[in-house]
Specification:
Elements: E1 10-14, H1 19-32, E2 45-49, E3 55-59, E4 67-71, H2 79-93, E5 98-103, H3 122-132, E6 137-141, E7 156-159, H4 162-175, E8 180-184, H5 190-200, E9 204-213, E10 216-223, E11 230-238, H6 242-253, E12 258-266, H7 272-278, E13 284-287, H8 296-299, E14 305-308, H9 311-322
Parallel strand pairs: 1-4, 4-5, 5-6, 6-7, 8-9, 8-11, 11-12, 12-13, 13-14
Antiparallel strand pairs: 2-3, 9-10
Length: 333
């Protein structure tokens, strides 16, 4: 599992929001190692909290000279991002040799351009902050826009959920080879949908969306053949699920046999659970880059949601990055 020439030991840490996911990654790494190699374990990271909400991460043991992988998704609240930044800073000040930020979900990625006057470019701000605290490299998954990698002046290892989604999609296609169709929920997702459709040798439908304002869909117009099709919508993020459910409802209204959805990051804010549960969607496949809500009322509404774990993919990538091995063979699309 580990190259003999590696001079720096590997240490893995998880911030609070992603501890369950990080443990699954460690478990996957232990399944991959040879019997004679020592087991991998998460390092101990403590977070001291003050009464006013301020907090301070600290390592319970030495990280001097180590290559540290710090795992944290930066979904809301913003404390998750701040915890990651402070943890990276603590590792650098404790003389870690390298600090690699593993961000299964990179928050603020939708703010990737100045699309109207007097707005911030949040993705660039976050990139600057990560560099400022001394991050040596990044590992992220399904960025909202590939060009966000250019916001960083450090190496970015960009992973994709397609490796884990394609096996399920192939089974769905083989059940309905003549009617299976890939769809994009909006014009921004057309490139992603086309890549899946090309790989799966199936037609593609693009949904043209107009918004009344942020998170409020005004109209959905499907472009392509819909009637009699079993449609799978491909997206990167489900936030309020307004676009997704509006697209699914419109596709069924226009004669689609069924509509499913595959999306990497289940932000699922506001009325998202309620919308998915009451929509025309048959199933919604998401990954575990963001944990589903544990609120009992929300749990009741998760009947259509299927979680695909990316733990093994991240385990392989962490080992390859640590051992200076190429990762390009992990990208089927």
């Amino acid at each position: 599992m580990l190259n003999d020439f590696h001079k720096h030991r590997m240490e893995l840490f998880a911030c609070e929001a992603t501890k369950d996911f990080a443990q699954r990654v460690v478990d996957a790494m232990n399944r991959m190692k040879s019997p004679e190699e020592p087991a991998v374990a998460l390092g101990s990271l403590e977070v001291s909290r003050f009464s006013d909400g301020e907090f301070q991460p600290s390592f319970s043991s030495s990280v001097r000279g180590a290559t540290c992988f710090i795992i944290q998704s930066t979904f809301p609240p913003s404390d998750n991002l701040m915890e990651l930044l402070l943890t990276i800073d603590a590792a650098k000040r404790a003389s870690a040799n390298k600090v690699i930020a593993v961000m299964p979900y990179f928050g603020w990625a939708r703010q990737d351009r100045k699309d109207r006057p007097r707005v911030s470019i949040g993705a660039k701000v976050v990139a600057n902050m990560l560099a400022a605290v001394g991050t040596d490299s990044m590992m992220v998954c399904d960025l909202h826009a590939d060009q966000i990698q250019g916001f960083f002046d450090i190496p970015v290892n960009h992973l994709y959920a397609s490796n884990d989604f394609l096996g399920i999609l192939k089974k769905l296609r083989d059940k309905n080879p003549k009617s299976f169709t890939i769809a994009a929920p909006d014009m921004g997702g057309a490139k992603r949908a086309n890549a899946y459709a090309k790989y799966l040798h199936c037609p593609v439908v693009i949904c043209h969306k107009t918004r009344a304002r942020a998170n409020v869909v005004e109209r959905i117009q499907p472009i392509g053949e819909v009637e009699g099709k079993d449609i799978v919508i491909i997206d990167d993020i489900i936030d309020t699920a307004g676009t997704l459910t509006a697209a699914a409802n419109e596709l069924v209204k226009r004669g689609a046999n069924s509509v499913r959805a595959f999306a990497t990051h289940a932000v699922l804010s506001g009325p998202a659970y309620e919308r998915i549960d009451s929509s025309a969607l048959t199933e919604v496949y998401v990954t575990d880059t963001i944990p589903l809500s544990t609120d009992p009322e929300k749990v009741k509404l998760q009947g259509k949601i299927r979680v695909v774990s990316l733990a093994e993919t991240f385990a392989r990538m962490i080992l390859k990055v640590y051992n200076y091995e190429p990762i390009s063979d992990e990208f089927p699309l």
